[in-house]
Every structure is written in C-alpha cells, then in structure tokens.
Specification:
With 544 residues, the chain is of the alpha+beta class. The protein has helices spanning 18-35, 61-67, 76-88, 93-113, 117-138, 147-162, 171-183, 247-251, 259-282, 296-304, 315-325, 378-400, 410-424, 429-441, 443-452, 456-468, 495-513, 533-540, and strands at 13-16, 46-49, 55-58, 140-141, 194-200, 208-210, 212-216, 230-239, 287-290, 308-310, 329-330, 342-352, 355-361, 369-375, 403-406, 474-477, 482-485, 492-494, 517-520. It has two domains: 13-141 and 406-520, GROEL, domain 1 (Orthogonal Bundle); 212-251 and 259-365, 3-Layer(bba) Sandwich (GroEL), CATH 3.50.7. Helices cover 48% and strands 17% of the residues. α5 runs antiparallel to α17, α7 packs across α12 and α15 packs across α16. Bound molecules: adenosine-5'-diphosphate (ADP) and magnesium ion (MG). Magnesium ion binds next to loops.
C-alpha cells in the first residue's frame, strides 16, 4: 500500500466541488431568510440581543447583518455587500442581500445539474450589463429648474427611504428636517457636519434642527450658574488645557519642613492657574470650551468676567465647532491670540427636555447643522438615528446624481421584463440562465407583497401584464393592495441605489459561484486533535 501523502496541516478541513457550491448557496439562503421580512414599508423589525445583553431593534439590513455575527465564510460575502451598500449609498441594504440570495437560489438547479459555474457567471454578468443600460436609459433626470422643485424632489426621496422604517408615520416631518440639514451643508456635503444628538423623552415631533453646532451641557462646577448663558458675536477659545488646581501637585514629589514653604508651593500652583486664566481672558474670548476639565476656581473666575465656559467637551463636538467657527484647538495658554479664536454670531444655552444644550449658531466657516432627536425609549431613538442616516445619505446621493427611478418593485419588474424578452432572442443554456435571473429580480415586489400580507402571485401577475403593455413604472401599491404607477405616486428612489444594489448583488453571486473549495486551517492555539473527524484522519498520516 502507498503511504498517505500529507498535504495540509493537521486538523485542516476542506471540501470541494459541487456539494461545496450547493452548501455555500444554502448558507446564503439562510441569511437571506433572516432579513427577508424587513423589506419595505410593511416590513417587520428585528430585535437582536448581543452577548453582553444589549438589545437593538432595527429594520436596516446592514445593521442586522452586522449584529448577526455570521461566521460562515461564504455567507460573510453577503454581510460585506450590505456594508458596502450602506457606506456607498446608505440605503437599499436589505434589497441588495435579497437580490444576491435570490440570484443564487434561481441558478442553484443549474449548478446541481452540473452546468459549469463559469457559464452561469457569464450569464449573470451579461444580465447585469443589460440592466445597467436599461436603468440609465429609464432614469428620469430631474432638471434643476427651481429651488422649490428640487426641494420637493428631495423630500420625496427622503420620504421613500423612511417609509419602511419605524418612524414612517412622521416621515413628512422628518423629510423636511433631513432636506434642510443636507441643504445647509456646503458643496461637498460632508456627512460628519450633520450632528445627531438624542434626548430621551418627549415626542418625535419635538425633534428639532439647529443650524449650527449643538452639544449637551457638560459637567460643570459651582459658579457656573452665574455665567451668562447667551451671547451675540462671540469669540470662542477652544482648548485642550486642564484648568484645575490639583494638576501640578500630583505630578511631583515635594519635601517641605515648614508651613511657610508649603504655602509657597500652594501659592505657586494658584499663580500658574491664574496666569493661564489671565491669558485666556486677555485674548478677548467670551466662550471657553475645553476638552479637559475646567475646575471650580476657573469656573468662578470666568463667571466673574462674564465668560461662559464648558469643560470635558467631547472631542468630536470640539472638532465640529472648530470646523464651523474657525480657530484652533490650543494645548497651551501661552499662544492664545485673537486669531486662534473661533467666531459665531449667536451662542446660547437652551433647555431641551431634561437636558441643557449649548447651541452655536451663525457659524462663519463651514455650514453645519445638528439634529436634536426626541422620543421614548433609547432603542427607539437609536433606530430613528439609523433611519435618518439612511434618509440623509439618500438626499446627498440625489443631490449629486439627480436622477430617480420608481420604487416599490417597479424598476425590478421592468428589468425582469427586459431580461425575459432578451432571453427569448438567444439560444442554449444562456437563455435559461437569463430567464432565471429575470425571475430572481421579481423577488423585490414579491417580498414587498408578502411582507404586507398581500397575495403576491396575483399582484405579480398584474404587474407582469402591465409591464408587457408598456406601463414601465407600475409597482406594488402598498396602501390599496393593488398595483399603481409608482412614478405618479411619488415613490421615488435615486437610480444610484438600484445601480449599486444590482451591481453588488450580481458581483456577490458571481463570487460565491466561483468558489468551489473551502480550506479551513485549524484555529491557532487549538490542539490538533480537536480539528474534526476528517482532518484528524489525514493528519495522523500513520505509515502502514
Ligand atoms: P432597504 O434596506 O433595501 O432600503 P427597505 O426596508 O427600506 O429596504 O425597503 C425598500 C423597498 O421598499 C424598496 O424597494 C422601495 O421601493 C420600497 N418602498 C418604499 N416605500 C414604498 C411605498 N410607499 N410603496 C411601495 N414600495 C415602497
Ligand atoms: Mg430603505
């Protein structure tokens, strides 16, 4: 008998060929089943509890996928496309996972019958290319005629993005806020210049948009009450300096043998602090913000001189203030000159629910705004924030690429029809494959119906018929359990979402199809014997 050849490390697990492909597809299917029900305006939410017991309620595909902690190597691809969709366009994260899963499901019978994956991949690529051409041809360019029209368009896109979320009842209210927030930014539309703050309590409608920077009042010492709480034309000193007494004494060991010497040390400490304070005062600042604590002596000192101060300001808020108001964050008190101070037109401290907020408005440098969200439970606010993030991203995208398509499955049905028509013109395996992908696209309207409790078969039949007659914008009407022209109904989505979702889904499907072997190394640190049945046998390599 020949000796066994040991190729891989002990405990390595590998499987290959068709069964591997099919098992990867099945794994993706189970992931898709996990997020399937969240799609669309009537989608359900998921409550996910992590190992530490933190509960998250979400409807957002990317968030759910992230929290699921998937370890299956092939299924992770789906997590990645959801994440990339989230980063790239911000919405359409459930759709992308669903599409990828459905493409795989539709081509699975072909894999099982032994069609070579390369042939399938080629067909998917061809279908994708046809879809891209069609979307670009169909997308309605919104010619920027007037500010009002642009606003109306943006609000509709934001409303469509939010209609599938927990806050869908307040979508009109929030779409106005979101559009205001995005329009207040400068050309580049930097996302980090929109701050979102959450204050539990109150109702959603009490949420407000502050044009400028706002952050929660920081911890403050006695003497704070006396400081003024509102200024016009203020000069802001941004610091990274500790203005507390204790600091110096902690840093050194001092030996003294009489009270007088000790007094000197104490005096010196006070002197150091007072010098710093005096420098800040001399610079002409009337608002002092510091990343580090501002102690009671300093608070009192500033209050006596009509200066507002806040210590322990979170870094991101300080940075945003710096970007918006100009100036620089100083780490020593020596160089505080008027030219490093930030400027803003109006500063005030305002009560929002149970919290006090510091608001800086009329910032000259960068355009920025802050959303202060109100609402019941913590988890609810967090989901609201995620939904608004989706809507904000959508509005930004729409401003950049101002073309839209109709949602509610309309565009998917039209693409499906296109592919079906195309498949009839070609012969061979490709015909069947393209037809399968055409069927796969129908998952979006089908799932929208299923999630709303509609008869999906019936509605899909109506949609197919309508599209065959040339009604290219017909999609699911979620309110009437029927079909409607979703372009007229203003269920609009930026075409970039669909382009990105289809491309990512097709790429993910191709990637999963092109893997025919998984080789898993034993985990580092794990004893080789624990590597599982198959690996063990191979690893032993006993010469016989
Ligand atoms: P995703 O994470 O993919 O954005 P959503 O849960 O937000 O998932 O659902 C988006 C889908 O819901 C899109 O296909 C969109 O066209 C559809 N949709 C949104 N609003 C409506 C509506 N009012 N009527 C019909 N379909 C809608
Ligand atoms: Mg969405």
């Amino acid at each position: 008998m020949q000796p066994q050849i040991v190729l891989l490390k002990e405990g390595t697990d590998s499987s290959q060929g068709k069964p591997q492909l099919v098992s990867n597809i099945n794994a993706c299917q189970s992931i898709v089943d996990a997020v399937r029900t969240t799609l669309g305006p009537r989608g359900m939410d998921k409550l996910i509890v992590d190992a530490r017991g933190k509960a998250t309620i979400s409807n957002d595909g990317a968030t759910i996928m992230k929290l699921l902690e998937i370890i299956h190597p092939a299924a992770k691809t789906l997590v990645d496309i959801a994440k990339s969709q989230d980063a790239e366009v911000g919405d359409g994260t459930t759709s992308v996972v669903l599409l990828a899963g459905e493409f795989l499901k539709q081509v699975k019978p072909f894999v099982e019958e032994g069609v070579h994956p390369r042939v399938i991949i080629k067909a998917i690529r061809k279908a994708l290319q046809l879809c891209m051409e069609k979307i670009n041809e169909m997308a309605v360019q919104i010619v920027e005629q007037s500010k009002d029209q642009q606003r109306a368009l943006l609000e509709k896109c934001a409303a469509t993005a939010m209609s599938s979320k927990l806050i869908h009842q307040q979508k009109d209210f929030f779409s106005r806020i979101v559009v205001d927030a995005v329009l207040s930014l400068d050309e580049l539309l930097p996302l980090n210049m929109i701050g979102i703050k959450k204050v539990t309590g109150g109702s959603l409608e009490e949420s407000q948009l502050v044009s400028g920077v706002a952050f929660k009042k920081t911890f403050s010492y006695a003497g704070f009450e006396m400081a003024p709480k509102s200024y016009d034309n203020c000069k802001i000193a941004l610091l990274n300096i500790e203005l507390e007494l204790k600091a110096e004494r902690d840093n050194a060991e001092i030996r003294v043998d009489n009270v007088k010497e000790y007094q000197k040390v104490v005096d010196a400490e006070w002197q150091i602090l007072y010098n710093k304070l005096a420098k800040i005062h001399e610079s002409g600042a009337n608002v002092v913000l510091s990343k580090l604590p501002i102690g009671d002596v300093a608070t009192q000192y500033f209050a006596d001189r009509d200066i507002f101060c806040a210590g322990r300001v979170p870094e991101e808020d300080l940075k945003r203030t710096m970007k918006a108001c100009g100036g620089a964050v100083m780490t020593t008190a020596n160089d505080i000159k008027p030219n490093v101070l930030g400027l803003c037109e109006h500063f005030e401290e305002r009560q929002v629910g149970g919290e006090r907020f510091n608001l800086f408005q009329g910032c000259p440098n960068a355009k920025t705004s802050t959303l202060i969200l109100r609402g019941g439970a913590e988890q609810f606010l967090e989901e609201t924030e995620r939904s608004l993030h989706d809507a904000i991203m959508i509005v930004r995208r729409t401003i950049k690429h101002d073309s839209v398509v109709a949602g509610g499955g309309a565009i998917e049905m039209e693409l499906s029809k296109l592919l079906r028509d195309y498949s009839r013109t070609i012969a061979g395996k490709e015909q069947l494959l393209i037809a399968a992908i055409a069927k796969g696209l129908e998952i979006i309207p089908r799932q929208l119906c299923d999630n709303a409790g509609f008869d999906a078969t019936n509605i899909l039949n109506k949609l197919r018929q309508k599209h065959a007659q040339g009604g290219q914008w017909f999609g699911v009407d979620i309110n009437k359990e029927d079909i409607s022209d979703n372009y007229e109904q203003c269920v609009w989505e930026p075409s970039i979402i669909k382009i990105n979702a289809l491309t990512a889904a097709a790429e993910a499907a191709c990637m999963i199809l092109s893997v025919d072997e998984t080789i898993k190394s034993p985990k580092a640190g794990e004893p080789p014997m624990a590597g599982g049945g198959m690996g063990m046998g191979r690893g032993m390599g006993r010469p016989m």
